[in-house]
Amino acid sequence: MKWILQFLTSSIGQKLIMSLTGLFLILFLTVHLIGNLSLLKSDGGAAFNAYSDFMGHNPLIQIISKGNFFFIFLHAIQGFVLYFKNKGAKGSKYAGKAKDKTSWASKNMALLGTLLLAFILMHLGHFYVRFKFFNDMPMVNQDGADILNTYQTVSEVFSNPIWIICYLIGLVALALHLKHGFASAFQTLGINHKKYTPIIKALGTGYSILIPIGFAIIPLYMYFIK
Amino acid sequence: MKLTLKIWREGGMYASGKLETYKVEADEHMSFLEMLDVLNQQLIEEKKDPVAFDHDCREGICGSCSMVINGQPHGPQKGTTACQLHMRSYKNGDTITIEPFRAKSFPVIKDLVVDRSAFDRIIQAGGYVSVNTGQAPDGNAIPIEGDTAGKAFDAATCIGCGACVAACPNGSAMLFTSAKVAHLGLLPQGKVEHEARSQKMVAQMDKEGFGMCSNVGACEAECPKEISLENIARLNRSYIASVFSSE
Questions:
Q1: What average pLDDT does the segment B24-53 reach?
Q2: How many CB atoms sit inside 10 A of residue B222's CB?
Q3: In terms of domains, do B86 and B204 share one?
Q4: Which of A126, A150, A223, B101 is in Cβ range 3.0-4.6 Å of A52 for a Cys bridge?
Q5: What is the pLDDT at residue B60?
Q6: Alpha-carbon distance B145 to B90, whole Å?
Q7: Is residue A96 less than 8 Å (CB to CB) from chain B?
Q8: Can you give the residue range of the structural domain that contains B63?
Q9: Which of B206, B216, B235 minimises the CB distance to A107?
């Protein structure tokens, strides 16, 4: 069993943790966005309420949701460990300044990650914590059953321009984090190939643009159009 | 051409380390190190301490020269060591900042000279082939596919100068270690110990206190031998596989 610990504390093992948890969170974003797009339907929130009721009560989803929280936690903790270890390994900076050949995002993943962690805490405070732990949630009768009116909570949050700006800032951080993270996760797994790496990089760039735009449409649409 | 040099002085009378300014007159045909030789001659004549810097072959193959020129290891010319950089890359009146490679695992010995023995210890941990591979004709008797031989040779061009560590914002030695693992592991003679080698060299690299690769790519951009990040992926692959498959 010692080998597992040795592996997970080795430099490549720690990077593998970042890569695998990151890839899981990338998959999570897709599912999260597809579900949330039901907020755009002009049905008074019926589709979104039904969707969140399903997500909130399906036992499999509940297990995956706990796993998701654990992976966010693990990704964040491991990320901080990497940041401080790497900072210690670098030592002092150069006085000479050269033209930077690397991307800003790749060198600021920890900063972007910290912003995202703050964003996630705000986001959970707005929705998850209210849905799960507060008894003041509005109810709605849909298909003969009383379910939480999560749609109303979402529209309340997105009626405040300050929150919308906070969400948009979070999504910019997400775009930059994904821009480096997506392709980087594959490199860490050892997938670097003349045929596939250009495809992975293109997919990563596309993903890092489309997913945040998809999420950004929701508050903007609900504020300006609905 | 008249140049202003800002050079990092550390050790001896400059215990804490600081940038000192010098004026030097150079010729465009000089190499960067010859320009430093001119400065040192000048300092000696003035009865001052000459600037210590590492150099050996001055042909770009030994990996001794190690300095950061205006923020770039080995200076501005792509795929070129500091000794092969020539003063024609600069013009009259330029100010050039020269610093040692910076990483916790490369402590400064004096001025621009850093201790890179951590690299030697990584090599000692597994950068060898311990089976008898015979004489040169035996090597030629084993057919190796051209592309594979090419990749092994590309990795073998690594001169172990440490520019990758110096350029990396994490002070990671993954490009160096992965190049050494690839150059041996891709060839049949080295393949036998490939997985064990991956584990031993990574373990030593971690022990030396190098940072962890976050795929920034600064190493590949600054490497005087243009070693590819592909090697890092290959090492990740063989290391992960070897951890799970070895007994």
A1: 96
A2: 24
A3: no
A4: A150
A5: 94
A6: 43
A7: yes
A8: 2-110
A9: B216
B65 and B167: one domain? no
Q: Which of B240, B242, B246 to probe by mutation at the A interface, max A CB count within 10 Å?
A: B240
B142 touches chain A (CB under 8 A): no
Give the predicted TM-score (pTM) of the model.
0.94
In the numeric block, which tokens belong to residue B209? Answer: 């206190």
For the stretch A60-91, pLDDT in tens is 999 999 999 999 999 999 999 999 999 999 98
Q: What is the CATH number of the domain that holds B154?
A: 1.10.1060.10
Structure ipTM: 0.92
Do both B60 and B31 map to the same domain?
Answer: yes
Angle at A141 between CA A139 and CA A145, to 5 degrees: 105
Chain A partners of B237 at a C-beta cutoff of 8 Å? 189-191
Which residues, 6+ apart, have CB-to-CB distance to B96 below 8 Å? B3, B4, B5, B6, B69, B70, B90
Q: What is the pLDDT of residue B57?
A: 96
CATH fold group of domain A15-88+103-224: 3 helical TM bundles of succinate and fumarate reductases (1.20.1300)
Residue B218 confidence (pLDDT): 96
Indicate the residue among B110, B131, B156 that finishes a domain.
Answer: B110
Return residues 98-137 of B near A (CB < 8 Å): 98-99, 102-105
- pLDDT of residue B15 exceeding 80, the answer is no
Q: Tell me, what CATH number does B20's domain have?
A: 3.10.20.30
CA-nearest residue to B229 within chain A is: A192
Q: Which residue has the tokens 């392709």?
A: A183
Mutate to test the interface with A, among B215, B237, B242 (most CBs of A within 10 A): B215
B17 SS3 class: strand
Domain count, chain B: 2
